[in-house]
Amino acid sequence: MEYGAVLAAAPLVARPNWLLLSPPPLAPSIQIQNRLYSISSFPLKAGPVRACRALASNYTRQTSETVDLDWENLGFGIVQTDYMYIAKCGTDGNFSEGEMVPFGPIALSPSSGVLNYGQGLFEGLKAYKKTDGSILLFRPEENAERMRTGAERMCMPAPSVEQFIDAVKQTVLANKRWIPPTGKGSLYIRPLLMGSGAVLGLAPAPEYTFIIFVSPVGNYFKEGLAPINLIVEDKFHRATPGGTGGVKTIGNYASVLMAQKIAKEKGYSDVLYLDAVHKKYLEEVSSCNVFVVKDNVISTPAIKGTILPGITRKSIIDVALSKGFQVEERLVSVDELLDADEVFCTGTAVVVSPVGSITYQGKRVEYGHQGVGVVSQQLYTSLTSLQMGQTEDWMGWTVQLN
Ligand SMILES: *Cc1c(COP(=O)(O)O)cnc(C)c1O
User: Which residues are annotated as modified residue N6-(pyridoxal phosphate)lysine in the UniProt record (predicted)?
Assistant: First the structure.
């Protein structure tokens, strides 16, 4: 019975061999076993035990509204869901239509471009469930366009904006029961674009794979909504002029793990990077942008190629302007940071995260007596109520799925 259910959940089109864990099967029964293997024994890293139980019965409970997960204690760990989207692109530069397949491991050539030379990009966006059951995406066309810009920089073909958005919608709807109930979190959507074709000498890969998987998430930082503590890094840098800091390429992230690890060992939440030339101006945190507030004027480092152009950053700027704040995109020195009234970070994962303290060269500065600054709070409320559909979408930023 369970096998039948798995078959029913599989797409009707022929499945490409490279999706299977082992070489092409000799008999259909082996293929079924392979698929079951890939679904049920892929390690569930951070998910609670109850998620495992929900997972085992994925294909027999397709109709249930939501999975049985510990929604109160969602963090930012990977919880595997039912389906993922896959499309491929050969040398002609056109992506295949793409299909939904059960979530699981993929086969890659050991000489693929992504494994050997880091030819890869990712994106991140979220879906929220409203109390009436409708599902909202936030500015997905921005992610689609950013992936296209990044792909150009990394010499990769990219899906069209339409295909990207359509693929995101399909993936969210197929995994609908994993979207946390209103107020408990969101469904984090992770599009990936990689050079999956084989190369040996350094060159763009001859084939590309576009994948989207999703995971229910709660708060990014373990502090939750409490202010985070950052350390300003003056030895390591995440980006240099002319480099790839401005695109979401995978290599930018492994390179910051060392600084992040050292910071976390000392009790900090994350690292704030300075520019690599003067070692004086703020850039951003490992995976979020930074803002400082002084006398009600909001400032953030300008986008000049070394900072990731965050969609949350851009949205916060527009929300702040619409509320009458003065907003400046410019060079922001570390001295200004230490003298600020409030500091906060923005990103899809962290949303708006207030900064409680900054440590720079052994000196610690605290903001708002460890509280959440008035401006940060106001912007947080405006943006999140818009994203979650709690207020009218006066910016026209949300896309309703159902
Ligand atoms: C993704 C990311 C951000 C935030 O971008 P959003 O579009 O707001 O999610 C900021 N900095 C870095 C380095 C990032 O990778």
Answer: 248
pTM for this prediction: 0.85
Instruction: State the Cα–Cα distance between residues 349 and 128, nearest whole angstrom.
Output: 13
Which among 218, 197, 199 is positioned nearest to 208, based on CA atoms?
Answer: 197
Task: Please indicate whether residue 314 is annotated as part of the active site.
Answer: no
Backbone angles phi, psi at 142, to 5 degrees: -65, -40
Task: Give the dihedral of Cα atoms 367, 370, 373, 377; nearest 10 deg.
Answer: 150
Residue 270 tokens, joined: 């994350």
Q: Is residue 275 part of a domain?
A: yes
Distance 281 CA to ligand 1 centre (A): 18
Q: For residue 182, give the CATH number of its domain.
A: 3.30.470.10
Ligand 1 atom nearest residue 315's Cα: 8
Instruction: Name which residue sits closest to atom 15 of ligand 1, judged by CA.
Output: 287
Q: Which residue has the tokens 């709070």?
A: 377
Q: Per-residue pLDDT for the chain (402 aa), expressed as one digit of tens each?
A: 333 333 333 333 333 433 333 333 333 333 333 333 333 333 333 333 333 333 434 444 454 678 989 888 888 889 999 999 999 999 898 999 999 999 999 999 999 999 999 999 999 999 999 999 999 999 999 999 999 999 999 999 999 999 999 999 999 999 999 999 998 999 999 999 999 999 999 999 999 999 999 999 987 766 667 899 999 999 999 999 999 999 999 999 999 999 999 999 999 999 999 999 999 999 999 999 999 999 999 999 999 999 999 999 999 999 999 999 999 999 999 999 999 999 999 999 889 999 999 999 999 999 986 678 999 999 999 999 999 999 999 999 999 998
Residue nearest to atom 1 of ligand 1 (CA): 287
Number of separate domains in the chain: 2
Active-site residue, from 129, 222, 248, 304: 248
Residue with CA closest to ligand 1 atom 14: 287
